[in-house]
Amino acid sequence: MYNPKSKIASEFICDDEIRSAISYAKENCDNRELIDGILRKAAEFKGITHREAALLLECDDPEVTEAVYRLANEIKHRFYGNRIVMFAPLYLSNYCVNGCVYCPYHAKNKDIRRKKLTQEEIRAEVIALQDMGHKRLALEAGEHPLKNPIEYILESIRTIYDIKHKNGAIRRVNVNIAATTVENYRRLRDAGIGTYILFQETYNKTAYEALHPTGPKSDYAWHTEAMDRAMQGGIDDVGIGVLFGLETFRYDFVGLLMHAEHLEATYGVGPHTISVPRLCKADDVDTDDFENAVPDDIFFKIVALIRIAVPYTGMIISTRESKKSRERLLELGITQMSGGSRTSVGGYVKPEESDENSAQFDISDNRTLEEVVSWLLDLDHIPSFCTACYREGRTGDRFMTLLKNGQISNCCLPNALLTLKEYLKDYASPETCEKGERMIKRLLQSVPRESVRAKASSYLDEIENGKRDFRF
Q: Per DSSP, what are the bridge partners of residue 168?
């Protein structure tokens, strides 16, 4: 029944194929000749299959693990350089009708403080985020057809794009809301969203249904086929992910890669991003109630293997992870991270509310955006606030084509430096500014094309003199 080109969930995420791939990996985990062949294939930077990745995950030979880490780092730098795109989540509402047992938003939780932002409150939250320096947001909302209808989401997007405060502007709004119809995805596209993001939570249908006992989200097929409907609605940048720790890591790792393969096979372009959250503590959620927690060593290898399997896909890590974990993951494939995040509704204007019981999950990395930016500079990563590809129409297969042929560096590197310059001028402390200026001066010479390098230098001068929003 396995068919990666099928649009039926049970056929492109086929339970028999996942279990067969896991068995294949266990049977061959000591087959060094086969493993070395997969590593050679991975070194061509064109990806590997879910079966091949499962085998590398199962092999516990330290030499193989080190080879995996080395390849992941090489692939990340080949396609994305040392750029790290910055964003922040914006929670609009925690009203929800679903019964997800791992999320404190579930309908039966009577203790959580429920809240839905008005458009004026959204405006205040966005201004607070702009005053930090953010240019890219990920909208989050619980699923509630009366409290959070699509019209509310669309109105909120219009509000966000309309806000211009000092030199601040949100230039890209990504949307992480419940699975919906083709028509609603078309409306989101027309509203100018960036990426549509939806996590599968787990690809194991039996486990999924147990974890989602009530509400619209309990329909496994409707949820799993959401990206197909989004593509049909004209959204060609989609982001997938699982919540590692709900099901066995082997199952969800293989399922995640199969989903990426399905999108590539069916639409000619895989996911724009893959997120790798791990289950963590929240209001009435105790991680001790879940037996599939993923330890650091396995989690790091999972991230590295996702990078190897889908070398062209952006990878996102949230503030669920600690500073120490995030630092390690930067070297294994991560290309986007949040900074200064709040997971409560209204938490940017009133930070103290993030400590109350309105948050979706507990944050491990509580640093401000500037602290994260300064830290990235110390690690020789470029904190990028770039949104140029989305606004220049380089989405879907157009973006992937530039990435695969290596031409994206003539856009992404100078755009990263330009947006870093804006951040330094408008928001950074003198110490951070000094570090950032040194990086810009040094890396400007790395822009491959001379004409682009010269133009970028001119744009940097104009930013210094007060102008904003230049892009390639």
A: 165
Phi (first) and psi of residue 106, to 5 degrees: -55, 150
Average of per-residue pLDDT values in the chain? 94
pLDDT at residue number 161 = 98
Query: What is the reported pTM?
Result: 0.94
- Write the pLDDT tens digit of every residue in 42-83: 999 999 999 999 999 999 999 999 999 999 999 999 999 999
Number of C-beta neighbours around residue 220 at 10 A: 21
Q: Are strands 83-93 and 336-338 parallel, antiparallel or unpaired?
A: parallel
Could you give the angle at the alpha carbon of 106 between the alpha carbons of 101 and 109, nearest 5°?
100
Collapsing DSSP states into helix, strand and coil, what is residue 401?
helix
Give residue-wise pLDDT tens across range 106-126: 999 988 999 999 999 999 999
pLDDT band at 35 (very low <50, low <70, confident <90, very high): very high
Longest dimension (CA), the chain: 63
The answer, yes or no, to whether residue 355 has pLDDT greater than 60, is: no
Cβ-based neighbours of 113, under 8 Å, separated by 6 or more: 356, 357, 358
Assess contact for 444 and 409: CB atoms under 8 A: no
Span 304-320, average pLDDT:
95
Instruction: Give dist(CA 353, CA 89) in Å, integer.
Output: 15
**Distance from CA of residue 93 to its chain's centroid?**
20
Least confident of 239-243, 322-326, 405-409: 405-409
Angstrom distance (rounded) from CA 96 to CA 93: 8
Q: Collapsing DSSP states into helix, strand and coil, what is residue 92?
A: strand
Q: What is the pLDDT of residue 353?
A: 59
Q: Which residues are within 8 A (CB) of 168 and not within 5 positions of it... i.e. 6 or more apart?
A: 127, 130, 131, 133, 426
Tell me which fold the domain 82-366 belongs to: TIM Barrel (3.20.20)
Tokens of 168: 């601040």
Domain boundaries of the chain, sorted by first residue: 10-76, 82-366, 398-464
Q: For 35-74, b where at least 16 C-beta lie within 10 A, e where not — what string?
A: beebbeebeeeebbebbbbbbbbbbeeeebbebbbebbbb
pLDDT at 408: 77
Handedness of CA 349, 382, 79, 464 (dihedral sign): positive
Residue-level pLDDT at 351: 77
Task: Name the burial class of residue 393, with classes exposed (0-12), middle (13-18) and buried (19+) by CB atoms within 10 angstroms of its CB.
Answer: exposed
What are the DSSP calls for 350-387, one per residue?
A: SGGGGGSTTBSS--S----HHHHHHHHHHTT-EEE---
Query: What is the three-class DSSP state of 338?
Result: strand
